[in-house]
Amino acid sequence: MSEQTAQPNTFWNNFIRAVEAEPQQVSLIAGASGIQHVAVAIGLDRSRQRLIIISNEENARAASFVQADLQTVFRAIQVIVVRTSPSHAKTIEEDHQAGLCSIQFDRFAHDEIELIQSGVDMEAIKEMLRRRHLFQYFFPAPDHLALGLIESGRVHSLPQLIDQLVRTPDLGHPFGPNELMTVKLSFTEMVKELQNLGLVKEGTSGLEITDEGRRTRALVRDKPREGLLFKILNRISANLYLKALLHPELRTNRG
């Protein structure tokens, strides 16, 4: 971490530029609670209307509060929180389940830190972040995201899956290129191709992931990009809970 902490402003400004936002010269930002949140760095992507907060909050709960507090204020802008955290499996899982982009710099090689610090070749930085499965948190691959949503068991039908995919850019995560297939396809055609690849099948309850699909998912399940999947799943859970509160008759009758 010494290379990253030596000149944090330069390092994080280059990171923010690599995920296609502009660094802002502020380190304090007030939320709806009135609390002034301290940020390591802040980036603004005006064209996509998203605010990127680099946080060193001590845990996922605190970082999630920062995101929720700021999102309440910036209603027209999607707030995205990146949290630097240690390489402990439990900590990483908590970050992912909170929908955060979790970064462990002790997993980075010296030359990778130097690449970001220099800021000379932004395309090389982007490619390195792709290899680290960080860039895909900001620009997800739709085919991989679809596979994760199907594996979750929370999305069963094609219309449900398409609905969640369509909503993803509105959360501040515009799509990047597919990774499991070589061409850009409509969402419907993409799911058919996932079936052709043996990753997804039609089961008794709708779309299901196959054993091969689970092996493919295992390659990314502990990576930073996984936080976006939980961000979507958390939103699904919140919407279902709200519907149950507003419409009690929709609750499952257990009697």
Task: Explain this structure.
The longest helix is centred in the last third of the chain and has 21 residues, at 226-246. The strands form three sheets. A five-stranded mixed β-sheet has the order 1-4-5-6-7, sandwiched between helices. Strands 2-3 form a two-stranded antiparallel sheet. Strands 8-9 form a two-stranded antiparallel sheet. It has helices at 2-6, 8-18, 60-73, 89-97, 110-118, 122-131, 135-138, 142-152, 158-167, 187-196, 211-218, 226-246; strands at 22-24, 28-30, 36-38, 41-45, 50-55, 78-84, 101-103, 200-203, 206-209. α2 packs across α6 (122-131). α4 links the parallel β6 (78-84) and β7 (101-103). It has 255 residues and is of the alpha/beta class. The protein contains twelve helices and nine strands. The chain folds into two domains: 2-132, Trna Endonuclease, Chain: A, domain 1 (3-Layer(aba) Sandwich), CATH 3.40.1350; 142-250, Orthogonal Bundle (Arc Repressor Mutant, subunit A), CATH 1.10.10. Helices cover 48% and strands 15% of the residues.
Please tell me what the overall shape is. globular
Radius of gyration: 19 Å
Largest sheet report: 5 strands, mixed
**Mean pLDDT over the full residue set:** 91
Topology pattern, helix = H, strand = E: HHEEEEEHEHEHHHHHHEEHH
According to DSSP, the number of beta strands is: 9
Structural class label: alpha/beta
User: If classified by CATH, what would the architecture of the largest domain be?
Assistant: 3-Layer(aba) Sandwich
Proportion in β-strands: 5-15%
Number of domains: 2
Number of helices: 12
